[in-house]
Fold this sequence. Notes:
By secondary structure, the chain is of the alpha+beta class. The protein has a single domain (2-44, 53-98), classed as 2-Layer Sandwich (Alpha-Beta Plaits). It has helices at 16-28, 66-74, 76-85, and strands at residues 2-10, 35-41, 57-63, 89-98. It has a four-stranded antiparallel β-sheet with strand order 2-3-1-4. The longest helix is centred in the first third of the chain and has 13 residues, at 16-28. Residues 2-97 form the Stress-response A/B barrel domain. This is Dabb family protein.
Amino acid sequence: MFVHNVFFWLKEKDNEEAKSALLAGIKSLEGIESIESVYIGTPASTRRPVIDATYDFAEILVFADEAAHDVYQVHPLHKKFVDDCAHLWERVLIYDVEA
């Protein structure tokens, strides 16, 4: 299993249109066939010194293996998402995990 964890920080945190646009863009990735599971969310309410809750959205994508992830990276829907939404975020942080 290959788990692709992506965290987004919006440029305009209080802009509801930007939030909606980024969320719609993230949800559009659900159409990529190589993804087995998709989880999309915002920071949980837990607060401890070791928790970074400064991001605005997270997407957790589960793939069968790294090859399936590689298909996702070059998929037209992923490329469209980046082209359409990159202007909305100031930072993206990715943690890839092999499980």
